Amino acid sequence: MAHQSLADAETDGARPRTLTMPALDPSPIAVFTGPFTEVHATRLLWRAGFGPRPGQARALAALGLEGAVASLTRPAGAARLIGRPPHGADGRPLDPINVWGDDHCWWLDRMVRSDLQLVERMTLIWHSWFATSIEASNAQLMLGQNRMMRARALGNFHDLLIEVTRDPAMLLWLSGTSNTKYSPNENYAREVMELFTLGADRGAYTQHDVHEQARALTGFRNDWSNSGPTNFRFDPSLHDDGMKQIFGHRGRFSWRDTCRLCVEHPLHPSFVVAKLWGYFVGTPASARDARGLAKTYVRSGFEIRPLLEAILRHPLFYDGPRMVIPPIVYTAGLLRAQELTITTDDWAWIGEEAGQRLFDPPNVAGWDYTHWLDTSRWAGRFTTVTYALQDRVLNPNAKSYPMGENASHALEKALGYWGDPPLSAQTRANLLAFSRRAGQGITADWEQVTYRILRQNALRALIPTTPDWQTC
Q: Which residue range forms the structural domain that includes residue 438?
């Protein structure tokens, strides 16, 4: 399958679209009321996207809070992939179906180039929410699931759950095609309640409900060919059509009823609200705000967009504690900040080193967004910076460089390279102190140019490794 056929009516555009911002519905919870600055816009672009391109935060701030949020939550038309198409290190086009790691790079490219940033970010969230791994299927099935999630990224949760439940990659991952009336398999039945819709240890379901849900989910099957799993379908002859009792309700329930009963469960709205909120805000919602969001979710018929618009306008989103940026978001942000695209397939193994290989979450619970940094993953982030900068390193053997560049000038030049990101006073002070120490070693005549170039390269590499850039 060629790369472009995966894009499905998307276009490579040199210019972003012109948007007319629609008015947002009144929020059911508190709304941020302070001046909407470039700092706030930067946080919005990191948490609801993959970081700002040069000048993007300033342009978004000019729209005001309502306009900025609407530009993300109410996109019009198909995504445009802005910039040069991706390729591997040898210049070959990416082949996400057949070449290891190219699936990771293909999606990373979308994160970097798509002008529908929240759609892409929500696709990543659903990938972790309904975690499915390529280990149980293949790249073609995982990319199919990816396109399905992208198409429903901001839509109806019940509709998404229906599609996830019958998705071929998920059917293989959680034994859906091994679940028959002769031998019910409880894997998906348990996870659809525990991880996807209701939550564990909340009194939402019993082991009896797990067993009965498994019976309701029977009937899916697939064939196998030389190329792998194929012909996924529902076979009524393998389905248990007997009476079942789920959550106290009795009926001849099917797999569709499983989805409906989970979404209509009294504890489902609070689960969705808390889990979705946790992806965007670093402190729990108040009981009052959680109730307001849950009511909005139910009244909308289980739509995700109203929840997102309320969360992205809440004061805690902007004034609350900083959150660690996920590894793949960090990588995409480094490339976006430099207006670079994918020119190597090394990003796949680098993603593994940093702790987030796309299409291969650690388990059915997805990635743990509260534990992104440890000693091994931290090393992966340094590798990410090294590769992101490798074609932008200044040649230390250059014959000329500003001889009058002092420590302060060097820092300002390095910050300018990154578009003057908002950094704390303490971080700036630490970077300036480093710049001064490096400058103290410049003594001999032959060092005047070479060492200043080396200092500039070091500062450019240090800035994205600061806490201010690792968090947002």
A: 393-470
Residues 6+ apart with CB under 8 A from 51: 45, 325, 329, 332, 333, 334, 336, 337
Q: Is 135 exposed, middle or buried (0-12, 13-18, 19+ CB in 10 A)?
A: exposed
Residue 202 lies in a domain: no
Pairing of strands 80-82, 11-13: parallel
CA 407 to chain centre: 37
Stated pTM of the model? 0.94
Most distant CA atoms of the chain, gap in Å: 89
Q: Is residue 337 part of a domain?
A: no
Arithmetic mean of pLDDT, 63-75: 96
**243, 229, 280, 301: which is closest to 69 by C-alpha?**
280
Q: How many CB atoms lie within 10 A of CB 281?
A: 21
Domain count, the chain: 1
Q: Is the pLDDT of residue 347 over 70?
A: yes
Residue 36 and residue 138 in contact, taking contact as beta carbons nearer than 8 Å: no
- Three-state DSSP at 325 gives coil
Per residue in 205-234, pLDDT (tens digit) is 999 999 999 999 999 999 999 989 999 999
Question: Per the domain annotation, does 429 fall within a domain?
Answer: yes
> Is residue 26 one of the residues assigned to a domain?
no
| Residue 21, both tokens | 């911002």
Q: Is-contact 210 261, C-beta < 8 A?
A: no
